[in-house]
Amino acid sequence: MTTTTSSPVTTRRGVVELAQVSRWYGNVVAVNDVTMTIGPGVTGLLGPNGAGKSTLLHMMAGFLAPSSGTATLDGGRIWHNHEIYRQIGLVPEKEAVYGFLTGWQFVLSSARLHGLPSPADAARRALDLVEMTDASGRRIETYSKGMRQRVKVAAALVHDPQVLLLDEPFNGMDPRQRLHLMDLVRRMGEEGRTILFSSHILEEVERVAHHIEVLVAGRHAASGDYREIRRRMADRPHLFRVRSSDDRRLAAALIGDPSSSAVSLTEQGVEVQVTDHARFTALLPRMARDLAVHLWQVSPTDEDLESVFSYLISGSSR
Amino acid sequence: MNTVVADITYRAMLGRKRIWLLVLLPVALVALAALLRLVNGQDEQTAVLLMKSFAIGTMLPLLGLIAGTGVIAPEIEDGTIIHLLAKPISRPIIAVTKFVVAASLVAVLAAVSTYAAAYLLAGSESGVATGFTLGALFGGVAYAAVFLLLGVLTRHAVAVGVIYALVWEGVVGGYVPGARKFSIQQWAQSLADHVSSSPFFSTEVTLGFAIPAMVIVTIGAVVWTGQRLRSLSLTGDD
Fold first, then answer.
1. Cα three-residue angle B136-B140-B145, rounded to 5 degrees
2. Do A227 and A286 belong to one domain?
3. Contact assignment for B8 to A101 by CB distance below 8 Å
4. What is the ipTM of this complex?
5. Do A63 and B2 lie within an 8 Å CB cutoff?
6. What digits encode the pLDDT tens for the residues B32-56?
7. Domain annotation covers residue A4
């Protein structure tokens, strides 16, 4: 058992800073010149798959050296510095955990590896926090994906870290487990911990994070309060497809209103380029009633994340 | 040394089916010796031949490979190693602990089975049993260190290890005299030869070369493993 005598950092700040960080693999740039500061509270790292979220998180967690730029925790270097783990808890995305250990043994081993004064108490507390006490006597290999995720969170929390980094933590969880973990994350953020979690699902981030960092294709695309991001996402032009009993009539009326910038008739119905989302959604049903046109289907056609993200990028570079 | 790391590693190595892989070759060695003893009776020459070709020549490198890579490579492959590395423990300490686990497994299994097999065939004649046991013990430790290093250097540790053991030590070492100097197998035999006085056995590598070589290779491999672990990088799926 190793116990180090050096005292832990007394200032519990937990500020992770990336300064002009890039990471490339050969010719492929995974993260491109990212500067961000993650402080206390819950921050969501949002981006589509392949955006470089894991790469960024690994650099914050000391498992990857930046190719250029610096990653620091409270001013101290993260790479090649195992002392940071007194302050950082990491929940990796990979599902693998020692399946031959029970949940209890796994979390207890984490507490002992941290050299905590009373590891059993710490392990009990952490398991309790993620509601895994009842199942803690079973081997991890018998756990469901969500249970594994929770036991990993318990192991990462066992030393009461100031900073918690979670890579796609809600993946593979059932709705109840997801809500519970979201609640836990939110609570820990309110306690003043620095929590960063990555996700490719906007709704997830929106529900938990007070601050959002958006990463697209390795670039830092947007940063700010979730309401701000939400507003910018709602403001972008939407393409709606409307099927009705009289498409031509409806199209003619729609083009007369400033809420849409273009209207076209297609085989599948009317395609409307909407610039004012709120106005359009209020207008359409009223207009249909006044014209005595039956609406059969109203569907947004470009709600996929890629288009949302690429809009955010173009917005941030403007 | 970190006892928690050692505990988890021993469990991973000895738990469930893994242990059979480790026990298989030592059991085969003793069984072979018992069979030869039944058929031919005690025979020092047969003992030396079996020790040279099977105990030291085959079992030892394979045990070293299974244990040396087994204590770390699967964990790196599936990412469970993060559980150990994301802790305020220096990486070289983790490397040393992994080495101790691998070396202890190889040393115990190889030494016990080698002694039992040699004793069955030659009794305590000419110090054959003692000599080869010592050779297996120290050779096993060196193999464990080298294959541990291989486990952190490459994802194809087992393949590279097999090629080293078969091609370098087996073929090249068999025909190219100079290559024999740089072979753990030959060092182990040198040690065995020094202890035993058997007329059926002699080696070319001197003890004065073999022992420092084993010490340097073992320490060097463990230190290098520690350095590699310090810089272990995780590449995400994206």
1. 160
2. no
3. yes
4. 0.90
5. no
6. 999 999 998 888 888 999 999 899 9
7. no
